[in-house]
Design goal:
- The protein has one domain.
- With 122 residues, it is of the alpha+beta class.
- The longest helix is centred in the N-terminal third of the chain and has 15 residues.
- The chain is built from 3 helices and 7 strands, in the order H-E-E-E-H-H-E-E-E-E.
- The termini are far apart.
């Protein structure tokens, strides 16, 4: 098992190599599914387009995502955080594209935001 420093170093390096502030577009509710990932020392809110989660198979989205991370050992996702849009309204917005590694993941659970969720644009 990785220690916290190695985990943060690896994820930070990968996140920096993949980081690009995405152009975002507001979408209809339900087009992005949010999840909370809990590791030994950290929490992360991430999102995936509903179509991508549906393509993973299964009837329960969180189980499909967890199984894919376990099967592949990693999964590219969008890191999400609350931000204000140009008009000053609060939104859950994609921050950067990151990769979640199976090592160190303790729990993945569905996450519901009371703010509108903005989908990343490819």
């Amino acid at each position: 098992m990785m220690n916290r420093r190695d985990f943060l170093t690896a994820t930070s390096a990968l996140a920096l190599s993949l980081a690009a502030l995405p152009a975002v577009a507001q979408t209809a509710p339900g087009n992005v599914l949010l999840f909370r990932l809990v590791s030994a020392k950290d929490e992360l809110i991430f999102g995936l387009p509903k179509a991508q989660v549906d393509a993973l198979g299964g009837t329960v989205p969180v189980e499909a995502v967890a199984k894919e991370i376990a099967r592949a050992g990693q999964l590219p996702v969008w890191s999400y955080a609350p931000r204000r849009d140009a008009q000053g309204a609060g939104r859950m917005m994609p921050i950067q594209r990151i990769v979640v590694f199976a090592a160190g993941v303790i729990r993945i659970e569905p996450y519901t935001s009371d703010m509108p969720v903005v989908a990343p644009t490819p």
